[in-house]
Amino acid sequence: MNAVRHPPGPSWLKSIGPVDAVGVEERVAKYTTRSIKKASKLWGLRCAVSMVDLTTLEGKDTPGKVASLCQKAMRPHEGEGIPMVAAVCVYPSMVRHARRYLRGSAVRIASVATAFPSGQAPLKTRLAEVRAAVADGADEIDMVINRGAFLAGDHDRVQDEIASVVEQCGPATLKVILEVSELETYDAIRCASFLAMRVIRPGDFIKTSTGKTSLNATLANNQVMLDAIRDHYLATGIAIGMKPAGGIRTAKQALQFLIAVKETLGDEWLTNTRYRFGASALLNDLIRQIEKEREGRYQAPWTFSDATDAY
Questions:
Q1: DSSP assignment of the chain, as one string?
Q2: Fewer beta carbons within 10 angstroms: which end of the chain, N or C?
Q3: Catalytic residue at 207?
Q4: Which domains does the chain have, with CATH numbers?
Q5: Given 72, 139, 175, 243, which residue is catalytic?
Q6: pLDDT digit string (tens) for 274-284?
């Protein structure tokens, strides 16, 4: 499906409406008061495991490190009933290694691209990086938007660049990273969400952060983006996925994010085809909590193998 750009313009920006910041923050505060017990909690923990994008994005990444990460992704723990994670996310140069280790597995290969995390490279260079990652076997591309152009008010350029990346992705799923901390306001986050959603395809995602800035995913900025996805879906019938990334380190936090998804978008989004967590350090706490629910006691932290916390 080819992306078709819809120039935003003043009237379009006005039509998406402002964000009620006080209302958003009051709503997400209530998510932290919800109590989930027993079978429902165990289901939520397992669901969250299946939504994790297990990630390594470091200059010292090696094929061996990627191999270990892939093994962890396919078998997070020896215990029964713990699913595989959704994807392994690596730099483009590591995609071919991940492909070798994950061949025959349901775990997908995601690659950051478009000069991650800054996006500060010529467009032709960013598009070449996308093509290379897809050619090497990436199932998913996590791109960063041009925040400088967005903040300068050049929304047409931002949207055109996203549309160009869509064309280079081919069959690969696209996740558009807004980098919410640099957009600064809820209104800007909502605007950037709509800019992306109007040119990406059904099944593609919008994503909060690279995890490389001081502020990453929060319940509030996640809620602003969920509300935008809901409004876009009601207007167009097109279902867009969501990925909060960075700062989600505990099972308790993950369950609060899933509550937000259920109460805003419904059960149809409680699947890794529509919701992901970019939070590798989260995985071991999820497993630890699952084992506690199953056995009635916590296992020691060293029982679990390490997962790289890149974002």
A1: --------HHHHHHHH----HHHHHHHHHHHTT----HHHHHHHHHHHHHTBEEE---TT--HHHHHHHHHHHH-S-SSTTPPPPSEEEE-GGGHHHHHHHHTT-S-EEEEEESSTTT--S-HHHHHHHHHHHHHTT-SEEEEE--HHHHHTT-HHHHHHHHHHHHHHHTTSEEEEE--HHHH-SHHHHHHHHHHHHTTSPTT-EEE---S-SS----HHHHHHHHHHHHHHHHHH----EEE-BSS--SHHHHHHHHHHHHHHT-GGGSSTTTB-BB-TTHHHHHHHHHHHHHHSSPPPGGGSPP--B--
A2: N
A3: yes
A4: 9-295 (3.20.20.70)
A5: 243
A6: 999 998 789 99
